[in-house]
Amino acid sequence: MKDGTATLEVPHGKTFKLKPLQFNGPCNFPSVHFQLEGNIIAPRNTKAWKGHDSERWIEFLNIDGLIIDGGGQINARGSVWWEFCRVSFTFLHLEFISFISNWVIRSILKVLLFIFQENSCSRPTALFIHNCNKFLLNGTRHLNSARNHISINSCTNSKVYNVTTIAPEDSPNTDGIDISQSSYILIQDSTFATGDDCIAINGGTSYINITGVTCGPGHGISVGSLGKKQSYEVVEHVRVYNCSFTGTTNGMRIKTWEGGSGYARNISFQHIILTNTSNPIIIDQKYSDLTNEGKEQTSAVQISGVTYRDVKGTSQSEIAIILDCGGVTGCTDIFMDSINITATSSGSKVRASCNNVHGFTTFTSPPVPCLS
C-alpha cells in the first residue's frame, strides 16, 4: 500500500490463467490500483464458466478511484466461443430462411432464429467495469475477447488512455469498448482493430469524448443501436474528434430501432480521416428485426443536432453518405461542413442517399440532395 492506495500487481514477464473473477467494492481505500505489467489469459474450455456468470470474465464493481494500468495484456482467447456461435447461427441464418416458400415454416424458423439470437450463444465480456466512478484505464492491451472487450456501465468522470484492442476481423460481436448508462467518459489515443464496433455508445449515455482514436478493421464508431424492443433510450453530448477509420465496414454510424422512443442529440464528428471505408457516414433510423418486420411503426428515437465537419478520405462503397430517417419523426438539424469523400477505386464515383432528413450542408462532396 502506498499513499492510501491498495495495489495488486501482475508482474512483468509472468502469465496467469484466470478463471471468471469478480472484484466487488466498495473498498476501504481511497483508490485501488490494478497494475498489469504481465499477462492474463482466459481458460480455453468454456466449462470454466460453469457456476459463474457466462456473460463476464473479469469484473470490477462499485470501486471508485479504480486504476488499471501497465504495459501488460488481457487475452480472452475467445476463438472457441466464436466457433460455437458461427456453427449455431449458420443453421438458422436468415439467408437460409429466405429460400423457404412455405410461410408457416418460414415464420417458425424466424421465431427460432430470434430466440437463438436473444437467448443462446451467451459469451463473456472480457473486462466489465460497473459503477466505478473516476476510474482510469491506461496502457493495456486487450486481445480476442469472446464478446466485447471492455464494457463501461454506470460509470462517471472516467478516462481511458492508450488502450489497444485486437481481434480478427471476422470475430463476432467483439466490440472494442461498449459504453452504457454512463457520463463524462474520455477515450483518447487508443487503437481498435476488431470484428465489430470499435466503440459503441449505448442508451443512458451522455458527455462522451472520443479523441485521437484509430479504428480498423471493425464496424466503426456507433451511437446505438437505440430503442430495441420498443424501449425508451437516450444519448446526448457525444464528441468524436481527430479520429481515423481504415478498412471499416462503417465509419460514423447512428442506429435506432423502429418502434423505439427517446432521442439521440448533440452529436459531433470532427476532423475525421477515412481510408477505404465502407459506409463512411450513416444514419439508420429504420433498424428492425424479425419481430417487427413489415409492421407499421408509430414511434421512433428522435435524432437531432448532428454535426459532421472536416471529414476527408476514401469510400469503398458507392453510397458514401446514407441518411435514412423514418416518417414518424425524421432527423432534424443535421449539419455537414467541409466534407470531401471520394471513391477508393480510381475512376469511380460516390454519391449520397437521404430520406426525411432536415438540415443543411456547406462545402460537401458528394452533395446530399435533401439537405439545402
From TrEMBL:
<keyword id="KW-0964">Secreted</keyword>
<keyword id="KW-0134">Cell wall</keyword>
<dbReference type="Pfam" id="PF00295">
    <property type="entry name" value="Glyco_hydro_28"/>
</dbReference>
<keyword id="KW-0326">Glycosidase</keyword>
<feature type="active site">
    <location>
        <position position="219"/>
    </location>
</feature>
<dbReference type="InterPro" id="IPR011050">
    <property type="entry name" value="Pectin_lyase_fold/virulence"/>
</dbReference>
<dbReference type="GO" id="GO:0004650">
    <property type="term" value="F:polygalacturonase activity"/>
</dbReference>
<dbReference type="GO" id="GO:0005975">
    <property type="term" value="P:carbohydrate metabolic process"/>
</dbReference>
<dbReference type="GO" id="GO:0071555">
    <property type="term" value="P:cell wall organization"/>
</dbReference>
<comment type="similarity">
    <text>Belongs to the glycosyl hydrolase 28 family.</text>
</comment>
<dbReference type="InterPro" id="IPR012334">
    <property type="entry name" value="Pectin_lyas_fold"/>
</dbReference>
<keyword id="KW-0378">Hydrolase</keyword>
<protein>
    <submittedName>
        <fullName>Polygalacturonase At3g15720 family</fullName>
    </submittedName>
</protein>
<dbReference type="InterPro" id="IPR006626">
    <property type="entry name" value="PbH1"/>
</dbReference>
<keyword id="KW-0961">Cell wall biogenesis/degradation</keyword>
<dbReference type="InterPro" id="IPR000743">
    <property type="entry name" value="Glyco_hydro_28"/>
</dbReference>
